[in-house]
Structure of CBS domain-containing protein:
Amino acid sequence: MTLVHVQSRPASAHPVHGTVADVMDAAGPQVWEDMTVEVALSVMAAARTGHLVVCDEDGLCTGLVTRARLTAVRDGSGYTDRIRLRDIADVIGPFASLLTTRAEAERAMRCRRLGALPVVDEHGSAVGVLAPTS
């Protein structure tokens, strides 16, 4: 699991910036990494969301996949209906912890060109998703 780097700070340091816990959305639909691309797209459509949190067999967050990524895979020349979410290499990480500052998370999202960033607790379970602010 790859967490966004977090530095310890006193509670009074940079109170204006806050943490991702202050601004994250609910994690939304969570799916298992053995789900096929087609089923994941169907779940996304039914949930009216642009992303899904992907979990392993223990329920721990392994990443997040977007509609754009799934569509690109489905439309690719090597696509078969047997491709599972775990087969998509860039589904894995990164993640933010509840203590990651908003600035750190938004910087990581910009640098990695991420549309959303899963937020995990100390055990690796998804607790939310951070979407970029305008």
